[in-house]
Design a protein that fits this description.
By secondary structure, the protein is an all-alpha fold. It is built from 19 helices and no strands. The longest helix has about 35 residues.
């Protein structure tokens, strides 16, 4: 029994390392896709300083200047430090975020989103100045502002101590609420991924349950599957699993396997996340999973996927099947696989 626990801990640690690698790739792709609308023109540090100095005053700042600043923060990460070194500039962005000009509100949120790509010091300053306002903005009727606020809260949660402050400010509870709109859902899932990863085992059982419930209600995508996989590595996850979630994962597995057998050249990450989530269940759930596999006649589908030469996918499948074989008494399904 002790050897099994050691093996399981080792597997989960490997999963976390793998997840960290994939998270960085996903984060980079998401930044490119969601934060830079146009290719920024070259903006000098002097320009950035001038805009920051305007922000620290109470005078109105043109939207175009805010756009330049938002792009400059992506163009050169050192510009983040330039802005934060101007006393009052961050307070000026918060003023624009909470003002009555919806255009400036959205752009200011974008500036904070890009500032949140900075180090711990930068994120800590942003949370202290803007955290509660970003949380409130998740309910804003302007979808762009709500979405950008969710992305910003996700970026800020990359640092554990900052993440803990955000939880106290109500960010995690608000992100768990059911949202309408595909873009807002994606942004909230992105943020939740960061919170689950950053907090690790310190994430309370109550929040594991809330986030699991939220993920269960979402459409199954690569991102929501990744979120469920991350949750499945938590010690309290199996206590929060419902039959609806198991059925959702198995239906997603069936769909992904059907897709994958026609596209052997590329790794289906959704398939991998779902498979590993199911593999992280407990003995009672394993019997339910196997029952679904039998009732859905998935044996031939497993054979087709297992015959592929993609070791990453095959190893994930074998890990799941190995757990089912070790903990389930019904061996008929496995006899058909041979």
């Amino acid at each position: 029994m002790q050897e099994n626990n050691i093996m399981i801990d080792s597997i989960r640690e490997n999963n976390r390392n793998f997840l960290q690698f994939k998270r960085q790739i996903h984060r980079d792709e998401s930044k490119d896709t969601n934060r830079s609308i146009t290719k920024p023109d070259s903006i000098t540090k002097e320009n950035v300083t001038a805009i920051a100095n305007t922000l620290k005053t109470k005078s109105t700042i043109p939207a175009l200047e805010l756009v330049k600043l938002k792009n400059a923060l992506l163009q050169d990460q050192s510009n983040i430090e330039v802005v934060l070194n101007v006393h009052g500039a961050l307070r000026g962005l918060v003023r624009e975020l909470t003002g009555n000009n919806i255009v400036n509100q959205c752009i200011a949120a974008g500036c904070l989103c890009n500032l949140a790509l900075g180090d711990f010091k930068a994120c800590n300053s942003i949370v202290k100045a803007a955290g509660p306002y970003l949380v409130t903005s998740l309910d804003n009727m302007a979808m762009e502002l709500a979405v950008t606020s969710a992305w910003t809260l996700g970026n800020l949660a990359s640092h554990r101590k900052v993440c803990e402050v955000l939880v106290l400010q109500g960010a995690l509870a608000k992100l768990c609420e059911r949202r309408t709109g595909t873009e807002l859902q994606r942004a909230c899932v992105y943020a939740l991924l960061h919170y689950v990863y950053a907090l690790g085992e310190s994430l309370s059982k109550d929040y594991v349950q809330k986030i699991t419930k939220t993920a269960t209600e979402l459409e199954m995508t690569v991102e929501s599957a990744q979120l469920l996989f991350m949750l499945s590595c938590h010690q309290n996850f199996t206590e929060c699993v419902t039959e609806d979630l198991v059925l959702k994962l198995i239906q997603g597995l069936n769909r992904c396997m059907e897709t994958y057998k026609h596209k052997h050249t590329e790794t289906n990450m959704e398939l991998v996340y779902i498979t590993r989530s199911l593999a992280n269940m407990n003995t009672d759930v394993y019997n339910v999973i196997l029952g679904y596999f039998v009732s859905y006649n998935m044996c031939e589908l497993f054979k087709q996927v297992l015959s592929d030469n993609n070791s990453f996918v095959v190893e994930s499948m074998l890990w799941l099947l190995g757990n089912l074989y070790n903990y389930c008494s019904d061996e008929e399904f496995f006899s058909m696989l041979l």
